[in-house]
Specification:
- The chain folds into three domains: 41 residues; 143 residues, no CATH class; 51 residues, no CATH class.
- 34% of the residues lie in helices and 3% in strands.
- A two-stranded antiparallel sheet has the order 1-2. Strands 3-4 form a two-stranded antiparallel ribbon.
- The longest helix has 27 residues.
- The N and C termini lie far apart (91 Å).
Length: 258
Amino acid sequence: MSVRAFIYTVLVTLAISGVAALSIGLYRDGSLAVSGWTDAVLPGPISAKHAFLSDKCETCHTPTRGVQAAACISCHTTAAVDLGKQSTAFHATSKECRGCHAEHLGGVRPTRMDHATLLRIGAFPQNPNTSAREVIEQMATDLKKFLRLPKSDEREKAGLDCFNCHSNRDPHRGLIGRDCASCHGLDSWRITGFLHPSPTSKDCAQCHQAPPSHYMEHFVMMDKMITGQEHATVNQCFLCHRTDSFNDIKDIGWYKHH
């Protein structure tokens, strides 16, 4: 063996031994066993709420398995009451946290709603035996997401019960039904190309429901008097309101007194 080959072998052996020793030490004694090593592998700062865990990687990361839901749940069991709220109750059937909650993103809040992931992890209890076709479809979806290619969200729209999660913030007050996906997309609730009916339309009450005050004496004593529409009924929105804002009153301007 030449001297060069011998030196190369020694260096490789030392490097492997060093990595092995470091790994064993970290696995046995935790991330604080070797000071400063995290600076070389840290992908980015974690969120402010988790900042106290910055030097304790094993709190969230399990060797050879990564981040498991059990690690998250061990800290967040006290949030059971909050997760029982209507808007967050879907967590009860979710088997994975990291699909929508990602750390090391520069200190931002570790919540990034992913409807496709939500559908996949929420379906586990109903369909524990994932078919080969579903695996392939998921791989294709993940690849498109990684490459930032456009994808159809029809599968998510068909599988998710949008109304069950969003009914408490439904601006339509149930007047348009429960099929949110027929009008709305998953990336944004704004409807591209939506045009409000003509300001001359008299069918406002089909979509808009009057506030509670309109069904009280307040409507007679205040609203009718202010607008001068003493013969108006509650469902004749067009007599007093403009279409850019309900607080924009005809011949008066912006007026909010509720």
